[in-house]
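Hi W., the inosine 5'-triphosphate complex you wanted:
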Amino acid sequence: MKLKVITSNPGKVAEYQKELSGYGIEMEHVRLPYDEVQTSDLEEVVNKGMDAIIAKGVRDFIIDDSGLFVDALKGFPGVWPAYAQKTIGNPGILRLMEGVADRGAEFRCCIGCDVNGERIVVTGRCRGVITESEQGEGGFGFDPVFSHDGVRTFAEIPMDEKNSVSHRGNAVRLLIDALKSKGLI
Ligand code: ITT
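Structure:
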């Protein structure tokens, strides 16, 4: 089986390839601009994105969308993580969290997969805390300020370990379960 991974982020393609190649699924990186709706619901962003891609005549693909939801900030930056990174960045998130005792936060990743005319939408989650300062050199985006175990940030642990607990790793495992239960792999 061959699936297109429609994204501007080549890192995602490598991650999917790594997780899914064992199931005989081959990944192809496709850059295809499509409209992302402005809504605070990750699943809605993904479902509408899938509709837009199918309307272009493209089938058998994966897209995903991620968000970071900080409890004390009422879910900010939510489904706009890329915008928050570009504007206030990690220092801005840490400033907003200065003196805040409740450090709880959740990464979410919603994957939409169109396969054999069927639609699978799954959401993986990873709970953790926003740290008091930036820690670690690895990863990307919010990794230096997010810790799943309250000790090390995602920027301080190996990628394999991150994938074993992360929102995207959990979403990929849910996708594999769904593909298996439909007898597609
Ligand atoms: P596409 O939408 O083109 O697929 P993207 O990288 O913009 O690529 P995402 O919506 O998954 O897509 O991610 C948006 C931002 O969320 C990303 O630029 C990071 O700042 C942040 N982010 C997502 N996953 C993350 C992770 O595992 N660790 C840290 N930050 C993450």
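Residues 7-9, 12, 64-66, 81-82, 85, 139-143, 154, 166, 168 surround inosine 5'-triphosphate (CB under 6 Å).

W.
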